[in-house]
Amino acid sequence: MLEIKSIPAFNDNYIWLIENRDKRCAVVDPGDAAPVLAYLKQHELSLEAILITHHHNDHIGGVAELVRQFPTINVVGPASEPIPTLSHSVSTGDQIELFGEVFRVVGLEGHTLGHIGYVGDGKLFCGDVLFSAGCGRVFEGTMEQMHTSLCKLAALPDETEVYCAHEYTASNVAFALAVEPDNVQLQQYRDEVNRLRAQNQPTLPTTLGREKRINPFLRTGEPSVMRSVANRTQETDALAIFSALREWKNEF
């Protein structure tokens, strides 16, 4: 099993560090090189790979400096996005090997047009598509693409650990409670999130099982969620419910 550590960056980003047993590691979405380099030095780790989910600068801003420091490093990322530092372009269905574990590449369009995720070793690195109790904004793609991407993730095993790229959980929980105020498991999660954040502890990773119980964007078929958006859409299909939720969250 690989060990995952979080490296905070900017106001609310997490750069995920994937470490094996012999001091080799990879990082996911390094928007800033400085905290990565400091962590590597402190823990005497050797950086061998960078995984990128999409082209936004808070996810790739540190890559050029890391490549300068580690010239032979393997930079893996989406083939269809403008990322100049890639050494290994991947698309949906491709596989990569990382320290003896195989990770599958999943297309997660919506937030950006070429956004991807990596699934392996019981773990999901999903960038800005799925957050705990929420989901990413639809910037370049369509609501349908984002909904399809979330459905792909919801089909993964419940025990899958979810490593998303931002600490948005507290604000997402506030919105989720506006959607489902009577969701007891969501109320309990709010208390846990508040306790963790009061101690400046991360709320991540979460699990897909938990998200299916508390995340409105994965619960579009639940009567309680459908009732909450009934004044925002006349349609009752999952895509219409999702779109109404996302638009509501945009203005929340």
Description:
This protein is an alpha/beta fold and 252 residues long. The chain has nine helices and 14 strands. The strands form three sheets. Strands 1-2-3-4-5-6 form a six-stranded mixed β-sheet, with helices on one face. The protein has a six-stranded mixed β-sheet with strand order 7-8-9-10-13-14. The longest helix is centred in the C-terminal third of the chain and has 15 residues. The protein is globular.
Topology:
Elements: E1 3-9, E2 13-19, E3 24-28, H1 33-43, E4 46-51, H2 57-60, H3 63-69, E5 74-78, E6 88-90, E7 95-98, E8 101-107, E9 116-120, E10 123-127, E11 130-131, E12 134-135, H4 143-154, E13 161-164, H5 169-179, H6 184-198, E14 206-207, H7 208-214, H8 223-228, H9 238-251
Parallel strand pairs: 3-4, 4-5, 5-6, 10-13
Antiparallel strand pairs: 1-2, 2-3, 7-8, 8-9, 9-10, 11-12, 13-14
